[in-house]
Amino acid sequence: MDDDRLERLLRGYRLPDVSPDLDDRVLSGGVAIMTRARTRATVQDVGWALLHQLGFGYLAWFVDLVTSADAEYRVVFL
Amino acid sequence: MIRGESGAFADLYRKYRARLHQYALSLIRSRTEAEDVVHDVFLGLAKQTSAGRSPREPSAYLYVSIRNRCLDRMRRRPELPLDDLDLDLVVAAPGDEERIELRRLLNRALLALPAEQREAVVLRTWHDLEFAAIAAMQGTSINTALARYQYGLSKLRKELGVHGR
């Protein structure tokens, strides 16, 4: 059997089928992950839009105030 | 893939599932573990895509991930003896008498090849990968990948030649 004939013979074989169980596991798992991500992104977008409508500027000011002000710590000996 | 696009994910899975499953099977030589690897790789891809980190070349990402996960599993368990394996890396179409007759012999000969040679033969013959891509995956030179393919073919020819018409 020469090289060409062997390669032709090999290429004529098909790949084994994938089990339907694997299809189900991958597709349902993948779709669930992506749906969760989409929901999370939507909730986040809505949340920011809502905050903006309700006064995002005030919130930003408040966050800035909390993070930039020096905290005062005091140890009380009992 | 666009972030969160489950249709594109399903299309990508359907396009590559048979090839990646066979590739995993050829590396790890266990049907259950090959399916688990394919499952884990695609769910890993779904997570990355959902986080906005889609790979630029999904096919390269999938092949490399399959290889890495298989090698990782193989390091953690002893290799199964050839006699215990009952796997088909390739199947013959119904009515193709010549290939049906040689199928069992070919599968056994493929599974008996050294791992790197088997990988080169599988990727070149049934996945149409260039030798440069095979070399990159195996972390070797193109010449070495080519030699592994040729050695592999030569061993298959010996096994099948006796029986081939």
What does this structure look like?
Chain A is mainly α. Chain A has a domain at 18-66. Chain A is built from two helices and no strands. Chain A has helices at residues 3-11, 20-68. Chain A is elongated. The model of chain A has no long low-confidence stretch (mean pLDDT 78). Chain B has two domains: 6-75, Rna Polymerase Sigma Factor, Chain: A (Orthogonal Bundle), CATH 1.10.1740; 95-161, Winged helix-like DNA-binding domain superfamily/Winged helix DNA-binding domain (Arc Repressor Mutant, subunit A), CATH 1.10.10.10. Helices cover 70% and strands 0% of the residues of chain B. Chain B has seven helices and no strands. Chain B has helices at residues 6-28, 31-50, 58-75, 97-112, 115-125, 131-138, 142-161. In chain B, helix 4 (97-112) packs across helix 7 and helix 5 packs across helix 7 (142-161). The termini of chain B are far apart. The interface between A and B is large, with 32 and 45 residues.
Summary, kept brief:
The complex is a heterodimer of chains A (78) and B (165). Chain A has 78 residues and is mainly alpha-helical. Helix content of chain A is 74%, strand content 0%.
| Radius of gyration of chain A, whole Å | 30 Å
Rough outline of chain A: elongated
- Number of separate strands of chain B: 0
Helical segment tally of chain B? 7
- CATH topology category name of the largest domain in chain B: Rna Polymerase Sigma Factor, Chain: A
Low-confidence segments of chain A, ≥5 residues, pLDDT <50? Answer: none
Largest interface (C-beta under 8 Å): A-B, 32 and 45 residues
Helicity of chain A, as a percent range = over 70%
Largest sheet of chain B: none
- Counting helices, strands and paired strands, the structural category of chain B is mainly alpha
The H/E string of chain B reads HHHHHHH
Output the structural class of chain A: mainly alpha
